[in-house]
Write a structure and sequence with these properties.
The chain has 12 helices and 23 strands. It has helices spanning 20-31, 46-56, 96-106, 127-135, 170-180, 198-205, 239-251, 270-277, 323-332, 352-362, 393-403, 427-436; strands at 2-3, 11-15, 34-40, 61-67, 70-78, 90-91, 113-116, 139-142, 151-154, 161-164, 187-190, 209-211, 219-223, 233-234, 256-263, 281-290, 293-301, 310-311, 335-339, 366-370, 373-378, 386-387, 412-414. Strand 6 (90-91), helix 3 (96-106) and strand 7 (113-116) form a beta-alpha-beta unit. The protein is globular. Bound molecules: shikimate-3-phosphate (S3P). Shikimate-3-phosphate binds next to helix 5.
Length: 437
């Protein structure tokens, strides 16, 4: 994919595609609930399709349809004990969320299962779920004994208990809480900082006996003994997908975009807080709640005097997936941006610290890799380059945004652009549309 610098601003409106984290959870929890779960706003991207396929392989009937209100997904849940042993290994594709959350559910089943993933997922650490789940009485092991996928999950005896996690990870927290639905006693997770809380909010709406943590007390507990019941779920737009258009509108002169229906759960809105601190012109309108999640419309305008900031500490989990894009915006802003406490970026779909810094440098930016983040001294003109994405969707989209402010006449080349289909299949179409208006 070749992207030329933008000759005019981004303008117009966009309904942001559904939240990936919430879409995964709606299918998973709907599958282990009794009765039907009707999902609207579902994100039909490669990652969420991996989750649907895993549950279909365990006997869950998931319908995809369209009615007068638009597309829907209808999950015919079979209750906590209704999953069937899959005939083949469960393929989680590129999706860490599928692999980690499903591990918590499978830990509570009477049957044995095997989880596999693609090359990227097969490099990502799974000990972070194997160890706490086994401490709680589950029986998980890495097939090759190296802490990576494939994972073998056998029948265990979950007895509940309290786990203190080393990293603030919603995937790990969710796996533990889901296993707690199948335990004898209460299961508690204490995190170093509060990670996204969609599992706690949605499980509670499905009828689980669960208490969520807060930023001051990041401790969540679930008590077993209650069935889950299917409910209608309305999935808000994904702030992690909106991020690319927020960033693009901030740095491309003449832009003003309206992003409709963006989820602004406080455990996910770190990017808004950081951009505002950088001097961004972002207005939040029509705030509302749907299915327990807060959403709003965002009006984002070109902001010529962005300045660098320091980003670290408890805000990191609230913007972890947005850091490559924030780094791109920081390269355009004046002054220095320091990102710290973000070592987790190294174990995402790619090593996002190295890839972000190397691609920024290839475009002429002043960027430096750190053990737990990066430093960007903004303001140098960006020039064309060939962008290595390592098939990581967020790197491809972040540097597609950087390409819009490339000062060369020649385009920026994004390698393996189709990887955007992991979270945002229509990304390029939507970008073109906003650029053409
Ligand atoms: C996710 C949690 C985050 C995030 C990922 C989705 C989730 O991972 O990076 O894209 O849906 O729970 P960690 O919780 O492992 O940081």
């Amino acid at each position: 994919m070749k992207i030329l610098h933008a000759t005019s601003g981004l303008r117009g409106e966009l309904k942001v595609p559904g939240d990936k984290s919430i879409s995964h959870r709606a299918v998973m929890f709907g599958s282990i609930a009794t009765g039907d779960t009707l999902i609207r706003g579902f994100l039909k991207s490669a990652d969420c399709i991996s989750t649907m396929n895993c549950f279909r392989a365990m006997g869950i009937d998931i319908e995809e349809g369209t009615d007068e209100k638009g597309e829907y997904i209808l999950v015919h849940g079979r209750g906590l004990r209704g999953l069937k042993k899959p005939a083949n290994p469960l393929d989680c594709g590129n999706s860490g969320t599928t692999a980690r959350l499903i591990s918590g559910i499978l830990a509570g089943q009477d049957f044995e299962s095997l989880l596999t993933g693609d090359a990227s997922l097969s490099r990502r650490p799974m000990k972070r779920v194997i160890e706490p789940l086994n401490t709680l009485g589950a029986s998980l092991r890495s097939e090759n004994g190296n802490g990576l996928m494939p994972l073998i999950i056998e029948k265990g005896e979950l007895h509940g208990g309290s786990i203190r996690t080393r990293v603030a990870s919603a995937q790990v927290k969710s796996a533990i809480l889901l296993s707690g639905l199948y335990a004898d006693k209460e299961t508690t997770v204490i995190e170093p900082a509060l990670s996204r809380n969609h599992t706690e909010l949605m499980l509670s709406a499905f009828g689980a006996d669960i208490s969520a943590g807060s930023s001051i007390d990041p401790k969540a507990s679930v008590r077993p003994g209650r069935e889950l019941y299917g409910i209608p779920v309305i999935v808000p737009g994904d702030i992690s997908s909106a991020a690319y258009f927020i960033g693009a509108a901030l740095i491309v002169p003449g832009s003003e975009v309206v992003l409709r229906n963006v989820g602004i759960n406080p455990t996910r809105d770190g990017i808004l807080r950081v951009f505002k601190a950088m001097g961004a012109d972002i207005k939040i309108e029509n705030e509302r709640y749907e299915s327990g999640e807060r959403s709003a419309d965002l009006i984002v305008s070109y902001s010529p005097s962005l300045k660098g900031v320091e980003i670290g500490g408890d805000i990191i989990p609230a913007l972890i997936d947005e850091l490559p894009l924030i780094a791109v915006v920081a390269a355009v802003a004046g002054g220095e941006t320091v990102i710290r406490d973000a070592a987790e970026l190294k174990v995402k779909e790619s090593n996002r610290i190295s890839l972000t810094v190397n691609n920024l440098k290839a475009m002429g930016a002043d960027a430096e890799e750190r053990e737990d983040g990066m430093v960007i001294r903004g303001g140098k003109p960006l020039h064309r380059a060939s962008i290595e994405t390592a098939r990581d969707h967020r790197i491809a989209m972040s540097f597609s945004v950087a390409a819009l402010v490339n000062s060369d006449v020649r385009p920026v080349e994004i390698r393996d652009p189709s990887c955007v289909g992991i979270s945002f299949p229509d990304f390029y179409r939507d970008m073109d549309r906003l650029l053409e208006q």
